């Protein structure tokens, strides 16, 4: 009972943080009234170009089912303001014997967009899933410039009015769950979520706070933010969004980005990320829902040593729930901060095991 109450309290605390920087909240009724949208022909990519090859390489034997797919493009209001309009892309088979199908939500990494995920959407849809993808905050249709995401992070440091690193998109994913659980064609008990890098962090946090996400696969995402600060292993993560840390360094009168700068930035743009909402506390709460964590052995952004405690605590949570086969960790040898086709296959197998009838 104590662990259940503890989990509920932590979720409640995180909800309060999410609400603390919201514009006036869209009512539940209004939030479920979608706005039509057109397919995106030329999606916006930011920063370093993302790798399309891995997405196209799996599955290698994909059947061409494009003419058999139903495509939905729409906006889901999640709050007021420009960023409160969530772009959604859904693919499903036009003809299906199941009246209610499992769904999987896919979240893209930094600098990408929902269109980058289309090969995975087509694959899952062809196998009977309702495949859902979104543009995270300041990405894709929610970005006006090639530096929109980095600019938003700097603004979050300066003004403290938004949380573009993880938290704001998690809010959107909660509203997306509201919407998905109104659809008659979805089995509401079978909604999975996955993503890689930033998208995997979104998946991890959305599942921690919302139990409607029933199967979870964060890829190259789970890390220990506090551990990285304490063990001087924050450099690679900081370098991935360096402009905000450079701005903080200047404002704090520092000659170089150091541990103090890193901690102050996290506290400002994502309160609790390196303390009460870090992975050792939030990941175990996903139990007993099936959870597969996939990381690279040599990933400098998500050092394996930094999640030893998280893995240990999470394994115990699943053991306590007597759901031993609901938790698995895959550390792919010789892989850095990269997604591989084998990772995507492991994720696919995990969803098939727990979501397919």
UniProtKB/TrEMBL annotation:
InterPro entries: AB_hydrolase_1, AB_hydrolase_fold. Gene3D superfamilies: alpha/beta hydrolase. The lineage of its organism: Eukaryota, Viridiplantae, Streptophyta, Embryophyta, Tracheophyta. It comes from Lactuca sativa (Garden lettuce). PANTHER family: ALPHA/BETA-HYDROLASES SUPERFAMILY PROTEIN, ALPHA_BETA-HYDROLASES SUPERFAMILY PROTEIN. This is AB hydrolase-1 domain-containing protein. Residues 104-339 form the AB hydrolase-1 domain. Signal peptide: none annotated. GO terms for molecular function: hydrolase activity.
């Amino acid at each position: 009972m104590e662990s259940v109450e503890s989990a509920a309290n932590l979720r409640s605390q995180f909800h309060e943080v999410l609400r603390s920087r919201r514009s006036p909240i869209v009512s539940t009724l209004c939030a479920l009234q979608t706005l039509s949208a057109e397919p995106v022909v030329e999606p916006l990519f930011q920063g370093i170009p993302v790798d399309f090859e891995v997405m196209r390489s799996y599955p290698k034997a994909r059947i061409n089912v494009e003419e058999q797919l139903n495509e939905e493009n729409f906006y889901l209001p999640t709050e007021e303001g420009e960023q409160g309009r969530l772009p959604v892309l859904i693919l499903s088979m036009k003809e299906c014997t199941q009246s209610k199908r499992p769904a999987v939500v896919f979240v893209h990494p930094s600098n990408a967009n929902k269109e980058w995920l289309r090969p995975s959407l087509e694959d899952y849809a062809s196998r009977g899933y309702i495949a859902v993808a979104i543009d995270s905050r300041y990405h894709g249709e929610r970005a006006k410039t090639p530096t929109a995401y980095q600019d938003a992070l700097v603004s979050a440091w300066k003004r403290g009015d938004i949380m573009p690193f993880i938290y704001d998109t998690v809010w959107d994913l909660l509203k997306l769950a509201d919407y998905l659980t109104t659809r008659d064609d979805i089995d509401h008990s079978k909604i999975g979520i996955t993503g890689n890098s930033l998208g995997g962090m979104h998946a991890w946090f959305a599942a921690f706070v919302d139990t409607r996400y029933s199967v979870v696969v964060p890829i190259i995402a789970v890390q220990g933010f506090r551990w990285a600060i304490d063990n001087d292993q924050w450099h690679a993560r900081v370098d991935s969004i360096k402009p905000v840390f450079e701005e903080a360094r200047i404002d704090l009168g520092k000659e170089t980005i150091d541990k103090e700068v890193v901690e102050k930035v996290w506290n400002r743009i994502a309160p609790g990320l390196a303390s009460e909402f870090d992975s050792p506390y939030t990941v175990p709460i996903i139990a007993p829902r099936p959870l597969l964590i996939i990381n690279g052995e040599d990933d400098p952004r998500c050092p394996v040593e930094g999640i030893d405690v998280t893995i240990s605590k999470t394994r115990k949570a699943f053991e306590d729930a007597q759901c031993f086969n609901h938790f698995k960790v895959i550390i792919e040898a010789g892989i850095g901060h990269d997604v591989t086709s084998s990772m995507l296959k492991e994720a696919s197998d995990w969803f098939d095991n727990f979501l397919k009838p």
